[in-house]
Amino acid sequence: MAVQLDAQNFCARLKLLYESWKNSPEVWNDASTLAIVSGSSSNDEFRYLKSVSIHLWLFGYEIPDTVMVLSPDEAHVLSTVKKISYLKPLQSKCESEVGIKLVLHTKSKSDDGASMIETLISLIKGQGAKARVGTLTKEHPTGKICDLWMNGVGEIKENLVDVSLGIAGLLACKNSSEVVNVKKAALLASKVMKDFIVQKMEAILDDDKQVKHSKLAAMTENMVRDPQKIGVKLRADNCDVAFPPVFQSGGKYDMKLTAVSDEDPLKADAMLFSLGTRYSSYCSIISRCYLVDPEKKMEEEYGALLAAQEAAISSLVEGAPINSARKAAVRVLQEKKMEFLVEKLPKSIGFGMGTEIRETSLSLTENNERIVRPGMVFNVSLGVTGLEWPKKSGKKLPKEYAFVIADTVVVQEGGKAPEVLTIGCPKTWNNVAYSLDDVEEEPRPSPKPAPKEEVLGPRRRDLRTEVPNYNNKEQQRKDIQNSLQEIKNQETLQRLMAGKDALNGNATTSGRNITDITAYKNQTEIPNLGDLVITVDQRNECVLVPLLGVMVPFHVTTIKNIGHQVDGDHAHIRINFYFSGNYQPATKFPKQVFLKELSFRTSNVKHGSKIVQEIKVLRSSVLQRNKEAAERATLVRQEKLMKGKRVFRLPDLWIRPSLGGKGKKMSGVLEAHHNGFRYNAPRSEFLDIMYRNIRFAFFQPADNEMITILHFHLINPIMVGKKKTKDVQFYAEVMDVVQTLEGSRRSAYDPDEIEEEQRERDRCNRINKEFQIFVKRVQEHWETEFSDLRLEFDIPFRDLGFNGVPHKSNVFLMPTMNCLVELVEMPFTVVALEDIEIVNLERVGFNLKNFDMAIVFKDFNRDVMHCYTISSQSLDTIKEWLTQVKIKYYETKSNLAWKNILKKIMDDPQAFFEDGGWKFLDMDASDSGDEMSENNSEFQPDSDEMEESSDYESSDNESLVDSDAGDSEADSEEDADEEGMTWDQLEEQAKRDDREKQYTDDSDDEYRKRTQKRKMGQSMGGGKRPRQF
Q: Using CA of residue 492, residue 494, residue 497, residue 499, what is the dihedral sign?
C-alpha cells in the first residue's frame, strides 16, 4: 500500500518548529539556517538519532539519505525520486497554512546529487559570511549524499553550531496522540513483566531449573513482539523492544542502559529485570528487582528506596525544576537514616524519553535546572549496587546484591501528580520478596461460626403466568409447532426413503495409494552401504534394514510405529508395519505374506536413538504432506479471477485463517473485481474468492466488539495457507486495546478520558462507514452482473442473540436471515437454517438456570451440533425465533445420545415414521398420559444409551446439573404428573417450602434429606411407573 503522509500533522509541527526557532533563538544557538542530514538506513536495531526523531515527528516516517535545509522563509528537502513523490502532496498545504515554501530537490539514479548540494550550500552562504548553520554535530551520517554534503560544508565548517538542544526541547512535550502511544508501550512493558517474566521466574524457582539470562532475554523479546500471547491486543507490527531485555542475578549487576544479559543461569538471590518496549517508535521502560529469602535489613532498605522513588515521581509536576526529583529522593533516604544508600545512588536517577530511549538534556540530575512541562515523559529509575549480603549459615550466597526500581511517568497539566504508566506491575515488598526456606506451618485457628443472617421474606418475582398475553402467545407458538410436526415427519421420511446413498454424499477423498508408491525402480538404485546397520534414505523416503546379510528397503509409509528401549549398554529397536485384512496391499495381493514387525538389537545406543528419531521425523513429514495433498485433491477447481475495469478496494484488513508464511503478520487490501474478490497481502501473497463459490456473505459492524467483519461462507472449501476451510473472514480493528493504568482514579468527567472515548467512537464510525460503502457497491454489482446467484450481505440480528458454548468458549451467537452465526471468535460458527432438520432444547427444567441446544441436520451422517449452557432467560427468545423461521423444536429434560438415535432412524426409516416420527421427543405429549410409556417407541434411547449419555454428560459437559439437582427435578416431575398441579399450585407449594426452610435451624443438607424423605413417602403410595422418553 502506498505511503500517505499526514499533511495536517506535518504543517502543525513544522509551524511549532519555526515558532520555537524564532521565539527561543538561544536554545537553537542563534542559528540562521538549520541543516539536518539523515544517512543511509542501518542494520542497527537499536539506533536512536536526533535526525531520525525529527523525521518521525514531522513526517511520521524515517526518510534515509535525505538533506533538509530550513531557512527563515523556505524549507528545502533533497532526496531520491520515490521519497520526494511522498512529499509532493505537502507542498501546497505547507505554503498556505505555515507560510513556508516547501522546495523539493529530486535526485535521480543517474545523478550523484553534487549540483543540488552546491545549490543548498549557496543558499546557506547567501545568509552572510558569519551566518550560523545549525546542525547535529554529534551525528556522523554515512551515504553518498551525506559524503557530498560533508565535503560541501567543509568550507563553512567554522560556522556550524549544534542545535540538538533545540530539537530535544521541541520533542520533549508530547501531545495526546503521542501520549497514547507511550501508554501502549508502557502497558505492553508492565504486562510482559507481570504476566510473563515474573511467572517464568517463579516456575524456574519452583522447579529448580537452570535457565541462562540470555535465554530469558530472548524469550522475553519474542513475547514483546507477539503481544497476543499474553492477552495484549496491540498490533504486533507496531510493537518492539527498545533495548535487549536485561536479566541479572548471582552478585553481578550493571545499572547502565547498555548492560547485557550474560550466559550465567538465573540464581535464587537478588534478581534484577529491566525491560524497554516501543509502540509506534515511542519508548517505555520498567525495571523490578525480586529477592529470595531476604533479611529484615534488606526489607528496610528496599522500603526506603521505594519511598524515595515515589517522592521523586511526585516532584515532577508542571513548573518544577527537573533537579527537584533527585533532591526529593535524597531527602527521603536521609529521613529514613539511609545515608549509605545516598552515597550509592547514581548521579542521574532517570531521563526524558520519547522516540529516543534517552534524552540527556532531560536527565534527572542535581544540576539540571530546566523546567518540567506537561506532556514530558520520564523514566524514574532508582538503582543501587555494591550492597553486602548478610551472612546466613547453611546457604551459599553471593557477596553483593542490588536494588532497582524504574517506572515510566508522564507529566500532567495544572500541577497534578504525574501519571505512572507502568503501575500495572506491582512493586511493593510483598510482591517482590520470596521465601524458599522450609518453615513449619503454624496451626490455623479454628474458624468462628458465621453469624446468622437476618431472616428475610421471600423475594417476589414476576412469574410468566403473570405476564399479560403470555398464554395467548404461548398457545399460538404451540399451534404453529404442532402443524410443523407432521410436515417435518413427512419430509424426513421422503428424504430417507429416496435413497440412503444420497445421505452419504458423493464426495471422495483422493490421495496417493500405498500400492502406487515406488521407492526404487530397480536394485541398482538402492545405495551401496558398507555396514549392515539400519539406515534412513531421506531422498527416497525409505528405511533400509539388514535382513539375512542384505539391506532391504521399506518405504516409510508402510511403517505403523517404531519403538526404542535401552537395556544397559544395548538398545532394542522394534519396527511395526501396517498389517490387517483392511490394509490396501493385503486386499490387492491376498496370496502374499506381509511382514508384521522387526526387532533389532544394537550395542551403539546413540546410533539407535538417532535412527529412531530420524524415522519418526521422516514419517511425520511424509504423512503430513500426503494429508495436505489429499485435501488439495478434493478441492473443486475454481474459475480464474477476471479483473474488472472498476475495482472496489477496502484497505488495512486482516484475514482469518491467516495465509501463513514467515515474518510478522501484516494487513492487506481486499479488492472486488468482476467475478470475485482478491485479498492482496504483503510479500506478494494473495487469495481469490469467486462470487459463484460464496454461499453466504455476512457484514457485522463493530458494536460492542473490537472489530468490523466481512465473512464469507463458501460452497466448496478452498486452501488458505495450508488449511482447508469453508469460512474466510476479513476484519479491521476499530480500536486498540488500552488498559487504564491508574484504576478507578480517573473521573468519568476527565476531559482526556472524554476526548479519548470520542476519538475511539469517531474511528469506529469511520471504519463502519467504509465497510458499508464497500458492501453497498459490491451488492449493486452482484444485483446487476450476478443476479442469478441471489447473493446479498446478511447482517446479524443482535436483539435475538444469546450466549452459549458451541465449541470451547462462551460466545454470543446471533441469528441472521439465513443462518445462526458467531463470527468474532475462532472457530467460527455458521449454521444454515435450510440445513437444519429439528432443534432439541435439552435439560429444560423449571428450576435450572441454563439449558443446552442440539441441532440435528438433514444430513444424518453429519454430527449433531451442541450449544451448551444457554441461559434460561433466552429460552422464550429462541423458541419465538425458531417458530418464526419455521423450524420444529422439541424440549427434553436430559441430554440424548444422538449418534445411536440417528443410526436407528437411518436403519429403518419406515418404522420410525410409523412410530410417530419425532414425536418421541415431545415432552408435553409424554407427560400428558401413560400411552406413550406403555407403547414404547423403537427409536427411544435404551438403558445402555442413557447410561452412555449420562457418562458423557458427567465427564465432559460442565453445564449439566449435579446429582442432587437431578434427583430434585425427577421428584418434582413425579409430583406434577401424579397430582396434576397447575402453575399457581406449584408456586404456592414453592412458597411453603421456602417459608419452611427459612424458619428452620437445619442445615441445607439436612433440609434436602428431610424433604426428599417426605417426597419418597408420598411417591410410595402412588405406584406410578417411571416415565420413558
A: negative
